[in-house]
Amino acid sequence: MTARRLEIWRGDASGGDFVEYEIAAEEGMVVLDAVREVQRTQANDLAVRWNCKAAKCGCCSAEVNGRPRLMCKSRLDDFPATETIRVEPMRAFPLVRDLVTDVSWNYEVEKRIPPFAAREGADWLIGQADVDRMSEFRKCIECFLCQDVCHVLREHDLKLPYFGPRFMVRVAALEMHPLDGVDRTDLLHGEGGIALCNITKCCSDVCPEGIRITDNAIIPLKERIVDRRYDPLVGLVRRLARAMRRGHS
Amino acid sequence: MNVVPAGIESHECDVLVIGAGGAGLRSAIAASALGARTTLVCKSLLGKAHTVMAEGGVAAALANVDVDDSWQVHLSDTLFGGKYLNNWRMAELHAKEAPERVTELERWGGVFDRTPDRRMSQRAFGGHTHKRLVHIGDRTGRELLRTLQDRAVHQGVDVFMEYTVTRLLTDGDRVCGALAYKRLTGEFVVFAGRAVVLATGGAGRCYRVNSNSWESTGDGHALAYEVGAELVDMEFVQFHPTGMVAPPGVIGLLVTEAVRGEGGVLRNSGGERFMERYDPKRLELSTRDVVARAIYTEVAEGRGTLRGGVLLDVSHLPSATVTKKLPGMYDQFLELAGVDITREPMEVGPTCHYFMGGVRVEAETAASTVPGLFACGECSGGMNGANRLGGNSLSDLLVFGKRAGEGAAEFAGSPVTPRVDGAQVREGLDEMAAFQSGDRPEDPYEVEADLQRTMQDLVGIFREGDGLSRALTELERLRARTAKVGAPGARAFNPAWNLCRDLRNLLTCAEAVTRSALMRTESRGAHSRLDHPEYDDYWSKHNIVVRKEPDGMRVDVRPAVRVPELAALVEARMAAEQS
To answer: How distant, in Å, are the alpha carbons of B388, B469, B524, B540 from that of B537?
Structure first.
C-alpha cells in the first residue's frame, strides 16, 4: 500500500474548486477505485457515475490530468508515484455536480438519426468481412469522450450545428450495413454538420475502444457525400432524370 | 383522479416499465407496439444497464452450425442445467421462442458474427449440447442492448433516465404506478401507470465478490415483495466460475465463459486439468454450478494459486483467434492486470453473478401474483430453476420481455382506471427525508460492506445450517443499523443518500436468500449444503417462495410447475445422464 494524492473537482453549476484527498493505493488500482475510496471514506456525497468497472459501459468518463479518459481504465501506476492526480468532469457538457455532467444532449441527437431499416428484398445473408467492418463502429461504448474533446462542440458549448464524432460513428455503422435501405447523406450534410469537422483527429486519440473515428468513419462519410452530391457525372444523370420527369408530366 | 401532493411532478402512462436493460427495453417495445403509452424509467443513463456487460452470447436453437439442434434439445439442456426445478412451461416457451426473438434482433439492425455461408454463427457454451450461442466477439450484450435501445427510442417510448423508484403505488389490491426520485436533482416524481413491468435485474451487490454494478441492489425483488408479491427460488444464487482474482482493484470482474467456449483450459497450481475429476464428460464446459464448486474446492484444498484462484489458459490457441474471438478479454487482462492472455494464463475464481430467484410469475404473461404487476429478466424467477446456463439470460430477457410487455399492455387496456393515493406518496417522501433528519449515526457504505461480508462468508457457494442461522441473526443486526443510516448534504446526485434506500432492498433480498437456503435441506444446482450434500426427492418437486406478512417474511413451499407433455423428454434426459 502506498499513499497517493488526488485532486478532485467538487462543486456544481454555481461554482466549486479542486479538493485534495489522500488514499492508500493497492496494487492495480485505477482512478475510479481511488475516487470511490474517497467517496467511501472521506466524502460520502461525492458525485460520480460508474457501472461496469471494465470499460464496457462508458459511464466513468472524466478528465484525468487534463486528458479525457475512462477512470476505470486509468491505472494509478501509469502516473509517477509522487504526482498528484487531478480528476475533473468532462468540460464540454453542463455540470451537474462534482464529476457528473449532463450528457442528455447526446441522447437528443441520437433521436434525430433515422434508425436501421432493411432495404426491400434483403436476403439476410451477410459476410463476416462486412460484420468486421461494422464492428469497429458498433463497439462504441457511448462514453462521449470524443464529444468532450471535439473542438467544434467543446469550444462552442454544443451550439454549432454538428452531431459530433460519436454520431458520425453511429451513422457510419448504419450506412455501412450492407442491408440498410436508408440514405442519411442529406442529414449529415445538413443538420448533421459533417463539414464542420476539420479532421484534427483528437476524437480518435481519446477513444477507449480505439475506433479510428476520423479515418474510418468521418472521412469515408465526407467522401460519400461528395460522391453523391458533387460528382459531375452523377449530377448530370440527376439533371437529365429531372428533365425527363418534367417532360413526361 | 390521482391525488398527487402539491409540488410533486407527475406523469401518466398505460404501461410503466422499471429498468432499461434488455428485459425492460424489450417489454417497452412490445407494449408500445400494441399501442400502449409506454414509459421507461431507469437508474443509469440509457444503454448502461447490466446487459451491456454480457459477453458470450444469446442462446437460441437456430441450428445454423449444429444442424441437430432443436428447441427440444435446448429445453432439455435448460432443464438439466436447472436440475429440473425450473418452471417447465417457462423453459419450454423460452426454448421455442428464442430463435424468433434473436432473428428479430437481426431484422432490427443487430449485427452478429457469421458462418461461412453468411448466416448467424453460433458458439459452444457450458451445459449446451450443441453450438448454440449467437454472438459478436465478446460484446454480445452491448450489441443486443444498442439494438433494443435504438428500437425503443425510435418507436416513441418515453424514457426517464437516472430515476430511482423507491416504492410501487397501489389502489386496492392492484398496482397503479410508482414513486421515484430524479438522481440529478433529488426531486420526486410520480409515475401513474395502469400496469407496471419490473425489469430491474439482480441483487449481486449482496456479496463482497461480485461481477455486478452499483445498480444490482434487488430493487424489483424488494418493490414487488413490499406490495405482497411472491419471490421464488431465492436460495439459488449463481456464482460465475471465472471472475478476476487479481489485482485487488478488479476482484470479481467477469471473465466470459466464451473463454472456455473457445477452448480455454482450467488448471490448478499443480498443472492438473482438474475438471477431469469433477465432470469428465463436459470438462470446462460443464454447468456453472459444477465449475464454480470445483474451482472453490481446488482452492480450499490448497491447490489454488497464491492469490486464491486457478489458472485459465488460452495460450495454446492461435493468438489471432484469441484477439478476434475474445478482444474484450485480451484488452481487459492486458490493461487491468498486465497479463497477455495469448502467452500467459489468467488467474480466475468464482464471483457472484446472477440471481436465479425472483418475482414468481405466470409463464404466458409474466404476471406476478399482484394484479397489474409484471416481471421479466433477472428479477423474475422460475425460468432458470436451480442453475442458469450461460447464454440463457439474454434469450430469457428477449422472450419474457416481450411477453411481459404484451401482458402489461393487455392488462392496461381494462376499462377501470386506478387512482394514485396521496397518502402513499407522502409516506414515500417521508421515508427518503428521514435519512437526512434526526440522529443518524450509521454510515451506509459501512453497513453495505458488512452486509456483503456476512453473505459472502455465510451464504456463499457452500452453506450449512448453523452458518445460515448465524447469518439471519447478523441480518437482524444489520437491519437495525440500516434504520439508523444517514446521509447529510444536498440531494442532487448524492450517492450516499441513494445508498441509504438501496440498502433496504439488499437486506430484503439477503434475508430471502438466507431463509430459503435454510429451508432447502438438500444440495441442488447452485445451492450446496455441506450438512445436506445429497439430492432429496421431496425437494426435487418443490419450490420455495417467500412473501411479506404483517409479522415479517414468510417462507412457504409450492409444488414445482411441471408440464405433463414434457415428462417423456425429461425422463429421457435423466436416463441419458445416468448412463
So the answer is: 21, 24, 11, 5
